[in-house]
What we know:
The protein is mainly α. The chain has one domain: Orthogonal Bundle (Jann2411-like fold), CATH 1.10.3300. Helices cover about 50% and strands about 10% of the residues. It contains 6 helices and 6 strands. The strands form 3 sheets. Strands 1-2 form a two-stranded antiparallel sheet. A hairpin with a 5-residue loop joins strand 3 and strand 4. Helix 3 (about 50-70) packs across helix 4. The model has no long low-confidence stretch (mean pLDDT about 90). The protein binds zinc ion (ZN).
Amino acid sequence: MLEQPAAAALVEAFANTVDVEEDSDEIATPKGLAVWLHDRGLRPARNAVPTAAHAAYLVLRAGIREQLGAHVGDTPDEGLVAAADKVLAEHPVLVTADGTLVTAPGLPAEREPLVRLAIAWSELTTTGDAVRLKRCAEHTCGWVFWDVSKNRSRRWCSMKVCGNRNKSRAYAARTRTRTSAG
Ligand SMILES: [Zn+2]
């Protein structure tokens, strides 16, 4: 099953709202978050998301990105993961009779998309598909990608760019060691 499930596509898009290489963040501001949620069809309103809710989205994203980094062997920042877990605990979801997860009634509108993201993430971890979603092992990149390889062995978003960048740096390090030793 290599085709990317909708839940993975959503989590991937959310995780990639920050671009480490470009040093940009689409949802850095409450207004930016509102635009992103609206464009993804997650929220009908376009007005800025209230500050407290905005902060919760950023905490959730940081925690998810840490866990996606763990899928390429990085050690996750436990503080960031715990903070995201706390946000998730504050936004309980309901399980319907057929096992579907839904948002609880009475949830403020600006937090509903957050719960939909949480549900998508929960689906991925439950099905085991989450392991295919990874944060590029090249830290100056940090792009989140869906690993379609049969044995789920990819560590870089693009072997051409990040894989080679990593290899040439390792090569340069080896050469330097050799020079200084000789
Ligand atoms: Zn990369």
